Amino acid sequence: MDAAMERRREEIVAKKAKLAELKRQRELRKEAASNRTSLTASPDPIHQPSPRKPNAEDIDLILKKINEERPRSTGPGSPAQRAARPISVISSDNEGSTSYKTTTTMVDRESQTMSMAPLTTVFEFEAETKKDTEVIMYSKAVQTSDDWSPPKSRGVGQSDSEPEGSPTRTPRASKRLSRRQKERDEEIRAMLRREIEEELKAAQQTNPDADPTRTSGKENFPFKTLTDEELAAVERSDDFIGFVERSTKVLERALDQQLEYDILADYAQGRLNLDDEDEGQGSLAAKKGRRVKEIAQFWDDRWSKKRMISDLGFSAKFPELVLASYTKNPSAPHDPDGLIQVWNLHMHDRPEYIFHAQSDILTAKFSPFHPNLIIGGAYSGQVLLWDTRAKSAPVQRTPLTGSGHTHPIYSLDIVGTQNANNIISCSTDGVVCGWTVDMLSQPQEFLELTSPPPSKTDDMAPTCIAFPQSDPTYFLAGTEEGSIYPCHRYDRAGAKAGVDSRVKYSGHAAPVMSLDFHPAKGQIDLGDLVLSSSVDWSVKLWKVRPPAATGTSNALTSGNPQLVTPILDIAREDLVYDARWSPVKPSVFALVDGAGSLEVWDINVDVEVPVQKVTPSDNKRGAFASMPSGLGYMNRSLNKLAWERNEGRRVAVGGMDGVVTVFEVGHDLGGLETRSEEWSGVKRLVSRLEAVGEAGGK
Amino acid sequence: MAQNTFEETLSHLTRLSQKPGVQSTLILSRDTGAILRTTGLISKSSSANPNSTLPASAETSSDSYTNGRKEGGLQSAEDVASMVWAFLGAAGNLVENLDREDEVKLLTLRMRKNELVILPAPKFIMVMIHDTPPA
Predict the structure, then answer these.
(1) Which of A354, A453, A623, A658 is the least buried, fewest Cβ under 10 Å from its Cβ?
(2) Compositionally biased, Polar residues: which spans (chain B) (predicted)?
(3) Are the Cβ atoms of B124 and A247 closer than 8 angstroms?
């Protein structure tokens, strides 16, 4: 400290010399400045002209202020006071206040008190946070510290708790300022910046010193309290928002996972867990295998409200992710109409991702060939592509005008192989387009489906399309009038591209809501079995003619299409909105209906009653929670269902109320191991049904 | 996904802090250790009101800081922060000694009564204290 005092004394001597030199100048300036300050009497312009405004005039003003300030605090007083000043900086704490008093006595020094006014506020700030200024420096602070540093020194001197750091810094600052009064403001700022850097370095050095004492007590507490401004600055940074976004997801997963299983469970503790595990004894064992258990429900207050679920899908790569697309919320015109939420089975209260579109999304699915991509069809006729690595807006979309769809897309699919696949979309005006994932600006293929001759008009209104597993060039289209037509994407032997007019699958009396080819991944090829559901309260099972054979065998019946009837007709008690084969069990399929139940069928067991029938629980009554129960019938309607593709253990259903419910099925209805009898059983059933059908036909 | 506004981000935090079993949350700055945001840490002991998940995200952390300081006690935000900081430092040392290339991604500390989940990120540290599930 003595050395420091010595240094300061030298500085003061130097200053004195300079002051003498500058005396005349000062005289002139005083006058000019007093004129100026009388003009700018309010305190604001006085402490604003900090380097934040790199205005040469302003800086001049500061410098003059500093100039004035110095002779006043020292000059007019006695030399003793002048000598006392550096000491006050170091140790004494009343010097600062006395200088205040002296300054306020004279009218002439009004301007000086003005320049002090902001200092008092800084005082409080310092006393509160002590070390803190050394820990965090924002660029803003760097620029203003020029104005603030002189008061800081006094403040610290007063509190007397911080002998290092700030006191050494401030006299230097003032000295430099006085030395470079006439120089350019850029230089001053550069100086200050350098100084701040030094300070930062010093702060970094002092931090490790504090480290060992950190745990010991509160005095050396390493954490600072940020001011509201700093806090706001940090909290609004993208970094912070991104971090909160990610970390809260992780923590919610951690919480939800814990509810499912406690890894510290001690089974020796004798707490009987009389769960469903114990049910499977004796005759109940069979029942357990066919159990359908609800495992999760997804609903978001902000986004799911007043929206209906239009489609569902599981991710092929991450079986815990379920995608749900929603229609618009009519009561929220400012929210985007179209919505997709990706739910995680390990995180129950919040979607993993949210995607938006400008128009209702009517159908959506994960790309089976790329785990990050989601494709969707919109009411506006657009095909949209989202990427889970990107933001919530679609990364690609087809144009609204020109080529492509101009009617709502209710059905789309991705067909092909990993390396060569296309998006096939179908709109209600009968237009079928093929797109490549990389370029949605123009369709690669354009096909217009028209009703074959016997019908009164050409128009065809397909509601759904379905591709067989084995052949991406051929598909079935279900229509609003109830017929199902085979269609070809390309010209081929004996058939032109478009609707194959020689075969017509007729049986439904109302719009076909879904079509699903048998997934057929087993010993026996059942890929020609198709399940269709309709709002005529029925599900029908069809055996589809192979596309190549249709031409030759029916050449005779030219003009009149050959009518094919279903091999199995399952009447239900309500509208059937969706029916899907299990991806693993050959004889199992599931359907959802307008009454709000999910039915799981096993055609090997029974073709007249479902094996299981369940309804989603009321735990999360979404959109209609507050409605009177009399409306329950409509509310409960389930629109869509989706199987988890890899293991076939889970089924997601959703409908009018916007709630996604996931069920887990027992090992008789899902799971990877299948017995060969199941396959042969289906084969036998189909041939028996065919025989019956032919007999009935004749 | 980063389109979410500041308020929406905060709503995530609020919801997390109000989930059943969650006692308190704390966000620290990684480099300075400054307390950026805290919920449920104002009360001085967890036994006094074990499930107090105050909707504290509305108030700034400096408020809760001073509150916690006034009341003193074990569970003030800055106490927890300093302990977590020390714990994380120790864990970081352990990892560094095991494998210099590696780093801490998640710390879960289960106690008889509470469980601490600490999620360090390059710039921030998220801390959650919640009830140990009934075993």
Answers:
(1) A453
(2) 44-67
(3) yes
- Residue B35 — φ and ψ, nearest 5°? -80, 115
CB-based contact A115:A42 (threshold 8 Å): no
- pTM given for the model: 0.65
Q: Residue A272: what residue type?
A: L
The number of distinct structural domains making up chain B is: 1
Domain containing residue B119: CATH number: 3.30.450.30
- Given a contact cutoff of 8 angstroms between Cβ atoms, the answer to whether A646 and A632 are in contact is no
In this predicted model, what pLDDT tens digit does every residue of A56-89 receive, in sequence order?
565 566 556 655 555 444 444 444 444 444 444 4
- A166 falls within a domain: no
DSSP annotation string for B57-104: GGS-HHHHHHHHHHH-STT-HHHHHHHHHHHHHHHHHHHHHH-TT---
pLDDT for the residue A122: 46
Radius of gyration (C-alpha) of chain A in whole angstroms: 40
Q: Position B17: which residue type?
A: S
pLDDT at B38 over 60: yes
Task: Work out the pLDDT band at A118, boundaries 50, 70, 90.
Answer: very low
**Distance between B101 CA and the closest CA of chain A, angstroms:** 23
A388 neighbors A342 (Cβ within 8 angstroms): yes
Residue A379 is predicted with a pLDDT of 93
Nearest CB to A265 within list B35, B61, B135: B135
Q: How far apart are CA A471 and CA A464, in angstroms?
A: 17
Residue B129 touches chain A, beta carbons under 8 Å: no
Bridge partners, A563 (sequence order): A504
Residue A653 has pLDDT above 80, yes or no: yes
Domain count, chain A: 1
Q: H-type helices in A180-236, by residue range?
A: 185-210, 228-235
Nearest C-alpha in A relative to B126: A247
Three-state DSSP class for A70? Answer: helix
B125 lies in some domain: yes
Cβ neighbors of B43 (< 8 A, separation 6 or more) are: B49, B52, B71, B75
pLDDT tens per residue, range A201-228: 766 655 444 443 333 333 344 556 667 7
Do the domain assignments include residue B12? yes
Q: Is the pLDDT of residue A377 over 90?
A: yes
Residue A52 within a domain: no
Sign of CA dihedral B70, B75, B78, B82: positive
CB contact under 8 A, A255 and B22: yes
Q: Can you give the residue range of the structural domain that contains A620?
A: 291-549+559-697
Amino acid at A127: A
Closest CA to A295 of A322, A273, A272: A322
Residues 6 or more apart from A407 whose CB is under 8 A from it? Answer: A381, A427, A428, A429, A431
Show the domain range for B12: 6-131
Beta strands in A250-389 (DSSP E): 292-298, 309-314, 321-326, 338-344, 353-357, 361-366, 373-378, 383-387
Task: Identify from A134, A219, A226, A251 which residue to disrupt to test chain B contact, counting B C-beta atoms within 10 A and taking the largest count.
Answer: A251
CA atoms within 13 A on the CB side of A188: 28
In-domain check, residue A99: no
Indicate whether B39 belongs to any domain. Answer: yes
CA Rg value for chain B: 15
Q: Residue B34: its chain A contacts at CB < 8 A?
A: 135-136, 223-226
Task: Pick from B8, B22, B28, B29 the residue to mutate for testing the A interface (most A CBs within 10 Å).
Answer: B29
In terms of Cβ atoms closer than 10 Å to its own Cβ (0-12, 13-18, 19+), residue A448 is middle
List the CATH number of the domain containing A630: 2.130.10.10
Would the CB atoms of A264 and B110 count as touching at under 8 Å?
Answer: yes
Nearest to A222 among B16, B61, B82 (CB): B82
The widest CA-to-CA distance across chain B, in whole angstroms, is 43
